[in-house]
Structures are given as C-alpha cells and as structure tokens.
Amino acid sequence: MDEQWIGERALSKLRWRCRRGLLENDLFIERFFLRFGETLNVRQANALGELMDLSDNDLLDLHLERKSISQVQTRLDREDVHEVLRMLKENPLKGEK
Questions:
Q1: Segments forming the whole domain that contains residue 47
Q2: pLDDT (tens place) for every residue of the chain, 97 residues total
Q3: Closest C-alpha among 40, 81, 80 to residue 59
Q4: What is the CATH number for 57?
Q5: In a domain, 96, yes or no
C-alpha cells in the first residue's frame, strides 16, 4: 500500500505543534525531525500529532520507557503510534563507530 507523504506546509505546522515545555522532549523530537522529517508520511504524522496531545511528563515517560503506551493512554495503543515511538527512540549513531 502506498503511503501519502506529508506536505511541506503540514510538516511545518506539525513541527510547530511538537514544541514542548521539557527540553528532554524537544531533544527527542528535534532528532526525530532531522532524521525522518523529509520522509514522514501522513499516517506517521497523525500518530505523532496524537502523541503531542499527551502531557510533557507522560511523553517523556514513553521516551524513557518508564511507562508503556497502554499505561499512559489506551486509545494510543496502536501500531502506528508504536512505530512513531520506535522512530523517536532510534539512535542516530546506531551502527556507527
């Protein structure tokens, strides 16, 4: 199934919406956009947008794996949200020495 890519204007709006109050969250999100911003599809963008509805503390707990999605928000316990969380956690230096 082909995925529709997010447009430049929608990406800009999503970046603005993803600004957070906790620096730690901002660092994870900025790294995410640097790695995946140009290849983000609509499904992933929607999942990221739903994650941004969480409080800063809940979002950080998910990043740091202190809580699972089902503990934070059961409606977000879906594959698209899990995929975006994996992307957020992906180490940019993985495999590099």
A1: 8-89
A2: 447 989 899 999 999 999 999 999 999 999 999 999 999 999 999 999 999 999 999 999 999 999 999 999 999 999 999 999 999 988 766 544 4
A3: 81
A4: 1.10.150.250
A5: no
